[in-house]
Design a protein that fits this description.
about 190 residues; alpha+beta; five-stranded antiparallel β-sheet; 5 strands; about 25% helix; rod-shaped
Length: about 190
């Protein structure tokens, strides 16, 4: 594009006369090269910063000396097996109770009432462990067999001991997954 005087539109000489000179073209070219070099150097600096701060792959040479996480279950252990193991540990703890009341959060309920005026202790024995079935973040475990021997005072005031057995012991609860592994909370 040019105007009536033959000047390029937008081309203004450095001396304000409106005439373009070779120096103006050289100056514009140097300015463009300066911007390009600056952009390339900035991009290289950003790339180098990212490369230096990006965490190295664990198996790569020069990887950071951070300890690898310790797995809590073997690769062949399924979630259901881990929940079953956690429930078995919990129920074993419950079975160690010898107090006058069934332990809380163990899924143990005893059907007595008329035989005893007071209970002094209960011993538990797990004959068959309930088997876990998962349903999302909770579980149901059925098919267990539990024996409870209750000692106390009978209605007649005499010492009394009775053994109760349940063939259909079942427990339900929540599955708790954390960095430490799998645990259960029995309802």
């Amino acid at each position: 594009m040019s105007d009536e005087d033959g000047l390029d539109a937008g081309a203004v000489a450095g001396d304000g006369t409106g005439e373009s000179t070779g120096d103006d073209h050289a100056r514009t070219a140097r300015r463009r090269i300066g911007w390009i070099v600056g952009a390339v150097l900035t991009a290289a600096a950003v790339a180098a910063a990212i490369w230096l701060t990006w965490p190295a792959a664990p198996d790569a040479p020069g990887a950071r000396d951070t300890p690898a996480p310790t797995p809590t279950a073997s690769p062949t252990t399924t979630v259901a097996e881990a929940v079953q193991a956690a429930l078995d540990r919990r129920l074993d703890q419950c079975a160690q109770s010898t107090g006058p009341e069934p332990p809380e959060h163990c899924g143990i309920r005893l059907p007595w009432g008329t035989e005893f005026s007071s209970v002094t202790g209960i011993r538990f024995r797990i004959e068959t462990r309930p088997v876990v079935e998962l349903d999302g973040t909770w579980f149901t475990a059925t098919g267990g067999a539990l024996v409870a021997t209750v000692a106390g005072t009978g209605r007649d005031g005499a010492p009394r001991t009775e053994t109760y057995r349940t063939e259909d012991w079942a427990v339900r609860g929540d599955v708790i997954v954390s960095d430490d592994g799998v645990d259960v909370s029995v309802w």
